[in-house]
Predict the 3D structure of the following.
Amino acid sequence: MTNIIIAAGVALIFVMVGTPFWIRVVNRLGYGQMIREEGPEAHLNKRGTPTMGGTVFIVGSLVGYAAAHLFTGNVPTVSGILVLFLMTGLGFVGFVDDYIKVFKQRSLGLRSGAKMIGIVLVGVIFAIASLNFPNGYDVTPADPHLSFLRDFGPSIGPYLFVVWALLLIAAMSNGVNLTDGLDGLAAGPAGMVLAAYVIIGNWQLRNSCYDAGLGPGCYSVRDPRPRRRRGGGARRRVRLPVVERPPAKIFMGDTGSLALGGVLVGLAILTRTQFLLAILAGLIVMITLSVIIQVGGFKLTKKRVFKMAPLQHHFELSGWAETTIVVRFWLMSALFVAIGLGLFYLEWMPKK
């Protein structure tokens, strides 16, 4: 608990001080967000808004995590380091993408191939490392199994697991990126999912097969306590960028959206709740599917299913106010998270 309080407190102070400073730096350098001309007209007045705000909470996460361990003297765990690596690595890919956009003054940054190479490189290192570093009980951070509420079925083997992890990482990081189309729209759902992982990590800690010495039904996870600390800190940090509320003073950009996607997948893999993430992050999944449906439908029928994709822009063009869309989507996200947590606890309900 001490680590949680210290990490969250240091990160809070860092982000509160660092965000206004970063806004001034980006403004002075002229690194403003470029807006797609084919997007909703209401977005054109956002052109020039400072971007790459995700840099602040990524650095804040690292500083908070390091400060907590230095103060308490606890040794950082492999699981904690892996999640931080995935977050930072994907954040760096997003930073390069954002930098190209503002440097060349265009709405497109890295080419899709180059961006995917960066995501794959970071993802492969994370996936391979997560299958190594066993603890004293010979339990590694991840396991080559599919998982929902816990691991299930036969092992898919290390090679297929790496491919599976890459699919999850690419899908969720790009999903958060697609969701980040309105002020605060991505931060809200991401914060709710991270809050859910605080609860999940806490429950796994209390029911660990090794820390609690429980029998059948306990959780065989390597570092349940560090994941709770990591999730708790992240949850607080996602709530911090109130400057992203409309009208946004800074955008987190691909730097932030890719990093947040990485954190979500990292927590899902290391808590053995991979398929549960699809429910907890149901809003992000739904928005991603709207793009797939739009593209696929147009290729097949030459007609658009939605007025514009991602889904939030369809409602914008239908006359909904930006704040109305954000608030209603947040409510939907809260419902998805509630359903996911309900399913997680379902197996612990007394059986008649």
